[in-house]
Amino acid sequence: MSYMIPKKVEVLGEDIQKSELKYHNKRVAVTKEFTFDAAHHLHCYEGKCKSMHGHTYKVVITISGFVNEIGISVDFGEIKTLFKEVIDSKLDHHYLNEVLPNMNTTAENMIVWMWEQLDQALVERNMKDQGQRLEELVLYETPTSYATLKREWMEDNE
């Protein structure tokens, strides 16, 4: 395979028109991953997690939308802002049993709380009015153990 250096950088208005930036009218999901560190312990649990301990949690956020006039469905920067303001600012380097609502701080409980917070933020930022919606959330408690939540499960409530 040979590699070539482009002879000319594409210029908007000359080589491509603004009307060509939107290639399709499909819903597309974009995903961004984040980490935060926090401590917790579980109640009514006989095992290591009974004692206070910490994790480097990984949160994988997937939001979908229809592409706008320049071909973007959801700006990655907006997802980062949502995470920082809605999740990270409340949980990073905190004792989860103290900062979350009364619940056992299992990944299964935490992910539903996170969904509710992110979904409300989408409403407050008028993102839902623009057709953007939370599709999937994954919360890793360890590199090999995680909880998953999908939009249809939150809507069906089964």
Describe the SSE topology:
Layout: E1 27-40, E2 53-66, H1 76-91, E3 94-95, H2 96-99, H3 107-124, E4 133-142, E5 145-150, H4 151-156
Parallel strand pairs: 1-3
Antiparallel strand pairs: 1-2, 2-4, 4-5
Pfam family, one: PTPS
GO molecular function: 6-carboxytetrahydropterin synthase activity; 6-pyruvoyltetrahydropterin synthase activity
Protein name: 6-carboxy-5,6,7,8-tetrahydropterin synthase
Q: How would you sum up this structure, described in words?
A:
This protein is of the alpha+beta class and 158 residues long. It has helices spanning 76-91, 96-99, 107-124, 151-156, and strands spanning 27-40, 53-66, 94-95, 133-142, 145-150. The protein has a five-stranded mixed sheet.
Give the structure's gist in a few sentences.
Its EC number is 4.1.2.50. This protein has four helices and five strands. It is α+β, with helices and mostly antiparallel strands and 158 residues long.
Features:
alpha+beta; 6-carboxytetrahydropterin synthase activity; single chain; elongated; 28% helix; 158 residues; 5-stranded mixed sheet
Arithmetic mean of pLDDT: 96
Structural class: alpha+beta
Low-confidence stretches: none
- Residue share in β-strands: 25-35%
